[in-house]
Specification:
The complex is a heterodimer.
Chain A: E1 4-9, H1 14-33, E2 36-41, H2 47-56, E3 61-65, E4 72-74, E5 80-83, E6 95-99, H3 107-113, E7 118-122, E8 127-131, H4 142-159, H5 164-182, H6 189-192, H7 195-204, E9 205-209
Parallel strand pairs in A: 1-2, 1-3, 3-6, 6-7
Antiparallel strand pairs in A: 4-5, 7-9
Helix pairs in contact in A: 1-4, 4-5, 5-7
Chain B: H1 3-17, E1 24-28, E2 33-34, H2 36-45, H3 48-66
Antiparallel strand pairs in B: 1-2
Helix pairs in contact in B: 1-2, 1-3, 2-3
The chains are: A alpha/beta, B mainly alpha.
Chain lengths: 216, 74
Amino acid sequence: MNRSILATRPDHDRTTRYASTWADQVLKIARDKGDAVFDLPKERANRKEVESMLNKKRPDIVFLSGHGDENRVFGQNNETLIDASENSSLLAGKVVYAIACKSGQALGPMSIQSGAKAFIGYKNDFIFMIASEKRTHPLEDETAQLFLEPSNQVIISLLKGQSAQTAHTNSRRAFMRNMQKLMTSETSSRDASMLRYLYWDAYHQVCYGDAVIAET
Amino acid sequence: MDEETSQEIRDLVIARLKTLPTDKEISVGADGEFTKEELIDHVEKDDEIGRQMVEVEMSFLKALKEGALFEQEQ
C-alpha cells in the first residue's frame, strides 16, 4: 500500500454533482496506483462518518469536495463536516485539499495552527462554467473539464509524492495552460469568455504549509 | 467611489457579460448556477452576486492590464 486518501463527495445539487463526479476521477487513479481510498460519496459525506474515518483510518491526504465558507466545509445537504472552531484538529498530520468555496480564508490557516501539514483551498468562490446540454453528463462536459481537471491536478500531484506547494503550483499551471489554449486565434470569442473564471480560480487558490506524503 | 463611477463600472461589466455564450451556465459556489441573463440582472440590481461578478470582471481586466495572464508560474 502506498498512500491513503479520504474523500468527501456530496452530490445534492448540480455544482456538487459536477465536483463529485470529477473528484471520482482522481480516486480511480489512486486505486489504480494501489493507494488506499476511503470514499464518502452522497449521504456518506456526513460529519459522523468523516470524523470516524479521520480518527480510525488516519489518511495521509484529505480531499474535501463540496460547498464551503470561510470557516467550514460542507457535506451532503450542506451538513457541516469540518468547522475551523470545532473539529479542525482532526486534520492534524494530514495534507488537505478543499475544492470548497472560501475555505482558504480562515479554515486553511486555522487547520495549519491545529497541526495539518498543509492546506490547499480557495480564498473565494470556486467558479466554473457548465455546458447546458451536458448538465446530466458531467464527464462529457468539455467546458467544465477546463476548470475541474486543473483542480484535480492538486490530488494527482500529491499522489505522485510531490509536495503540497508543488501540487498547488502544478494546479495553477494547469489553469494557466487552459487559459493560454483559449487565447489562441483558433478559439472563438465565446469560448474565450471562460478566461475570466479560470483566472479567478487560479488566482484564489492558496496553499498553507508544505509537506511531502511519503510512501509507507 | 462615487455613484456615477460605480454605475459606469456596472455598465462595463454588463457589456462584458453580454459576450458570454447563451448555452453555458456559470456555477458560483453555493449560490448555484446562473445564465448570463441572470448574472446581468444581479449586476443591475447591485446585489451580492452582482457585486461579486463586478469583482471577477475587474480583477480579470486588471490582470490583463498588468500582463498577469502571460506570466509563467514560477
